[in-house]
Amino acid sequence: MLLVVLIFSAGALSIGATSAEPPAGDDLPAPVTSGPDTTAPSTVAEPPAPDGLPGATSEPAPTVPDDPRHEPGPEETEAEPPTALEPPVVEAAPAFPAVRWRRSRALGSHTSGRLVRGVLLPGAGERFVTWDPILRRSPNRAWRRWGSDQLIRTLLAVADAYHAADPDAPPLVIGDLSRPGGGEFGSRFGGLGHVSHQNGLDIDIYYPRRDGALRPPRSVDQIDRPRARRLVRLWLRAGARFVFVGPRTNLTGVGPRSRVQAIRYHDNHIHVRLPRRGG
Ligand SMILES: [Zn+2]
């Protein structure tokens, strides 16, 4: 029905006066209204953040073969923008895709588990961006951004609290969560890989940088310590079971030793692990 209308109106347009409007992309909910499009920032285009600097971070950068075993399913595409069947309430398109919530199940353990009905963290939100640690660019690829609803909710709450107390703080820079169904996330997915991150309860967050750049710090000197400390504290308050920090960050004292621990390879990000729901 909508299609017919569109085809018809497209035909009418082509017969009528010249229209400067390019055809709408197939994947957008066909804006039926014509008129200047100046108020509609693209919800799709995320600035590519060109990073022409090789070796911008300190980790080794092995070339990453595409993983043939990973076929991104239809679920992995970004949340679709809401369909607009009732025409022309001209509403500004949401700046960021919405989260599609569903009740998830985190099965097994962090190192041998899976994620049922995971929730996709959008590539960016009002208070966060995501970062692909392998391709070294924003946003992170969608298949690395799945978490349990509990994890996504907690992240958004932490980000809200983080910015409520410090409105000038740059958005948080989020790294990997889990794969769409959880499971193995080792080196065949690029870089060093993750031993854990298997059941939607683990998340990496890069330390805020003193220069405010939305990318991982290259050394601990670039870490904005007051903000990093606050971030750790907020996660503890939000119920994190563990917050892993880097040995050189000097952040272990922020919380009890049973929960804030220093481990290797975490000098540019914290790794937060939530407990299983109810346990
Ligand atoms: Zn991690």
What does this structure look like?
The strands form 3 sheets. Strands 4-5-7-8-11-9-10 form a 7-stranded mixed β-sheet, with helices on one face. Strands 1-2 form a two-stranded antiparallel sheet. The chain has 2 domains: 1-36, no CATH class; 39-279, Muramoyl-pentapeptide Carboxypeptidase, domain 2, CATH 3.30.1380. It is an alpha+beta fold and 279 residues long. The longest helix is centred in the middle third of the chain and has 16 residues, at 149-164. It is built from 3 helices and 11 strands; from the N terminus they run H-E-E-E-E-E-E-H-E-E-H-E-E-E. The protein starts with a helix and ends in a 6-residue tail after the last strand. Helix content is 15%, strand content 13%. The structure holds zinc ion (ZN). Zinc ion binds at residues 194, 197, 202, 204, 271. Residues 194, 197, 202, 204, 271 line the site of zinc ion.
